[in-house]
Amino acid sequence: RRMADTAADGARAAQHPARNEVLVDGLTFSSTFDSGNMLSVDRGRDLESGGCEYVVTAAPDAPKPDTPPEAPLPPTSWFHFSISGASAGQEISLQVVNLIKHSALYDHDMRPVVRSLPSQKKWERLTYQVLKDGQFSIRFTLPVAKGGDTQFVAFCYPYSYTDLQRQLRRLDADFSTFDHDMKKSAAARSRYRTTSQPIYYHRETLVHSLDGRKVDLITISSLDNIMDEREEMLPDLFPDHPIVPRPHQFQNKRVVFVTARVHPAETPSSFVLDGVLNFLLKDDPRAHKLLKECVFKIIPMLNPDGTTSIERTIDGCGTHSKLALHIDLHAHAAKRGCFIYGNRYKSLNDQAASQVYPKLIGLNSVYFEYDQCNFSEQNMHLVEKRDGGLSKEGSARVALHRETSAISPPVYFYTLECNYNMGRRACTIPHSGSGLMSTAPLSPEVARKAYVPKYTTASWEDVGKGMMVAVLDWLGTNEWSRIPHAPFRTMAGLVQEIRHEVAPSFNVKTQPNEAQSKAETVAKNTLLVPLKKDVPKDVVKAKKKLADVKRIECVELPPT
């Protein structure tokens, strides 16, 4: 089956208008692979150093049905191609044309990512500067370190359909799919460091895309409150049924829906989703607690014509558990940072309640910038040029919000946007009692930076992890929460802070929370250290040097 899938992917790639191979001056330019995008290659201007610049035309996005044949090529964001036949030490000068004018990206030093196979498998941002011109095209030089290697160049870190299927096959092998009494395999225990906490994992095909590819739907939870009853069938969906049965239902669990890749070029959203999956399946007491409380429905790669499927799939999540959150993952070219687009509610209380979850994400990931979030009415109607002039009324966030507005308790719908390049500032988050580093990131593998860093795949994965820990905070069941170490100290203080922030837009005056103001003063004057029998001498010595520290508070060590 795996060989058949790979062969089918290769056949589709060869037939696609963006998949081409061109030989120029002994160099072979190719995009005949999954996620490849290159229409043509031509010799460009002569260079003073000798040789020439090669002009690579990115294949256009699909034009609208009424576009006349003589119209210019519609521009695109995504390009991805390879170059083989270069010798060691050679520098290949490139100009990529037919690009959307993402001035905001390249004004902040956005650079393509490159790798060289077989010697360098990891994608890295280009070290050479990228120049843009008024047409809009970009120019850069690609150095060749090793002869015989194939150089790959892409707009952003690639994450193809083939990559996704490879990852899902690993999960299929590690977790028994249909037996709700399953125990995790030795491979799963090794890869995910799982212990005695069984995980319910179910993968099914929601629908097939126009190209015949699978749109996967994954269900993840614990075995707590599992029922013999299966989820219902929905018309025209789940084509592999009954060979692949529907997942089991769960009694009285919250449902969290996560979707990604409505737009094919938005690869950062796939890395956020990887962060979600990796956290849910790891041996972490927070993950165990989260799966005990919730059922996660995940569509990792949703084709653009799949909005109706989202709506109907949400309707079919089961009658014994209630949908609580839906987060649709995207990438953004104009606005820096990782942030949320939310919806506008009619009352101050409802609006404040809807902004609690995004605020909690900012508490759990250094890469999420709450102050860049947008919950305005205007942003629910905005017409997006990048979406071909479509209104945001048709987005999952807005459309599903309107469809479910009468439901109680309310369901919250969000769009998570992650910039392709970088954030606006270096963020810090409160510690969770894990030591003196009160501004340490959520995950120890993500290095703390004092400057505004360029995003990597690890940055986006950290946002995904932060999203999951935020769900636990939102449910009020996080025993290792960062909330007590934030300025607002309590969930009530957090809500009061949001109310104070939102009130002017409702023409309501609010007073700052006195308890919150006092908590801020205490937080500024407190040095938090790990719980030990005696306060370390070096900490006491440090306290004497810090005039603003009035007391030392010892805290227990939760998981990092």
From TrEMBL:
Enzyme class, first EC level, given as a word: hydrolase
GO terms, biological process: proteolysis
GO molecular function: metallocarboxypeptidase activity; zinc ion binding
Keywords: Cytoplasm, Cytoskeleton, Hydrolase, Metal-binding, Metalloprotease, Nucleus, Protease, Zinc
Listed cofactors: Zn(2+)
Domain Peptidase M14: 157-306
SUPFAM superfamilies documented for this protein: Zn-dependent exopeptidases
One cellular component term from this protein's GO annotations in UniProt: midbody
PROSITE patterns (UniProt xref): PEPTIDASE_M14
Family: Belongs to the peptidase M14 family.
Protein name: Cytosolic carboxypeptidase-like protein 5
Species of the source: Aphanomyces invadans
